[in-house]
User: Which sequence fits this backbone?
């Protein structure tokens, strides 16, 4: 049998507790040869509070935990009977592992080593103000969000003309 990634459903808000409980059970029940990694997929999001920007970690899938394991009756029992676990995700009686591309898509940097860019709460057409850099104080409308580069392209009015501008996510804030 080969190992695969399985998704378990937990009580919402108990993901980290389930991860800790399951890691403890794996160790105490000698299941290290069948249950390998337990992860709560997280991502960084840029949050603005009281005018200050900071990166915060948020759960990608609240209520779910990923487990890398070899599925046997014993390993299923250990995971399924961990406090806080409500069941495996999947149809039928036998849980089905995620496909490789699904795992890469969900875990991103955890598997590929490429850091993920922070998620932002900005949208095309939104009015923003540039908060730092040479264009500080200018306001404009977002024309394009370049997620892969961590930048936004906006149009600002400069000297009576619309001028395109490209700045980092962290250099703009929503207009109030």
Assistant:
């Amino acid at each position: 049998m080969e190992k695969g990634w399985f998704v378990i459903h937990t009580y919402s808000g108990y993901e980290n507790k389930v991860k800790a409980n399951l890691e403890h059970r794996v160790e105490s029940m000698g299941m290290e040869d069948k249950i390998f990694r337990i992860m709560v997929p997280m991502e960084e999001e840029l949050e603005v509070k009281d005018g200050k920007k900071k990166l915060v970690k948020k759960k990608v899938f609240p209520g779910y935990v990923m487990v890398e394991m070899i599925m046997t009756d014993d390993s299923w029992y250990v995971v399924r009977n961990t406090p806080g676990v409500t069941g495996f995700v999947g149809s039928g009686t036998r849980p089905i592992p995620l496909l490789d591309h699904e795992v890469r898509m969900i875990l991103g940097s955890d598997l590929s080593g490429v850091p993920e860019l922070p998620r932002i709460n900005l949208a095309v057409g939104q009015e923003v103000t540039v908060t730092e850099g040479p264009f500080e104080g200018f306001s404009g409308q977002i024309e394009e969000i370049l997620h892969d580069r961590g930048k936004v392209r906006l149009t600002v009015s400069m000297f009576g003309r619309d001028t395109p501008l490209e700045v980092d996510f962290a250099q703009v804030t929503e207009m109030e």
In short: Residues 109-116 have pLDDT under 50 and may be disordered. Residues 4-112 form a domain with the Alpha-Beta Plaits fold (CATH 3.30.70.940). The CA atoms of residues 46 and 55 lie 5 Å apart.
